[in-house]
Design goal:
With about 70 residues, the chain is α+β, with helices and mostly antiparallel strands. The protein is built from one helix and three strands, in the order βαββ.
Amino acid sequence: MAIVKVIEVIASSTKSIDDAVQNAVTECSKTVRNIDSVYVKDIKAHVKDGKISSYGVICKVSFRVDE
């Protein structure tokens, strides 16, 4: 029987929302194995001088736990 664990992480990027999600996966992959999926729970953008300066995401990362 497979057990799946979910952790919540926050990541950001100055490029795009996609890049922020990729940063979340990249950082999690450094210490977590068997990542199956990422659910983007929330998205926000920081604004400076009338322009978007960075993007932030809150993600739920799911991974299988080794038996």
